[in-house]
Amino acid sequence: MIKFFRKIRQRLLSESKFSKYFAYAVGEIILVVIGILIALQINNWNEKRKAKIVEANFFEDVLLDLKKDQDRLEYYELFYTKRAEYLDTLLTYLRNPQKTMGIDKFQQYVEPLYYTATPTSYSTSFESAKASGIFNDIEAKDLLKELSQYYSDFALMANNFASITRYVENKFEPIMYNFPEGNMNQNTGNLVINEENTQTFYNKIASIKDNRNIPIDYEIILKTPRMENYIIGDMGRTSNAIGKIKSRQEKLQVLIHKIEERD
């Protein structure tokens, strides 16, 4: 093809047809420019196609992480809702002297209070994409901002969970130091909500018979102002935790819907 155009140029020059040569030269330049533009367009189309694939893969991975978050938040909601119920029960017996709880029931309801939840956020896909620099190629900027805010807000829930853990360690456990654990049995941990298998632990404790015959008056602990202060403080923190969990669940549902409806 190049030889063909070269022969035409040479023939026009040898025949001194400068005007035709000029018109031909302009036409050749236009053809070259058109070829370059077509090549650039094809390259641009390929780059956009690749970016679309990267974006689709990113949101697919993030959606999987968000659904893991969804399951985790359901666990947290159950954990703290039950905690609130146990605290409510203890406060009800504490404030009603005529109601007798019994040592076994008391042991069952205080045991779950030793446990707290560890906050976990499944943000690996988002953080990996952020570190790799692909956010610049993603067109859904508003959705990226919402995801970024969602993962940043995790600290609010994590801080609340941590405050409950500190409160248990600093307030609840000292109250219970003087309470003998001789009444722990296979049923003690029935109300405990925990991801790990705690039943083996309670079975082991129950298998070791307590021969000390230590008198246990649980009401001395239950009906003291110190215990009441603790229960109310824990109820407030637990209520706060439930509120943050529900708020995060609402934001999560919106994000999942938007990602699923993208296409």
Automatic annotation (TrEMBL):
Chain segments annotated as transmembrane: 21-42
Domain of life from the UniProt record: Bacteria
Name of the protein described by the UniProt record: Uncharacterized protein
Keyword terms of this UniProt record: Membrane, Transmembrane, Transmembrane helix
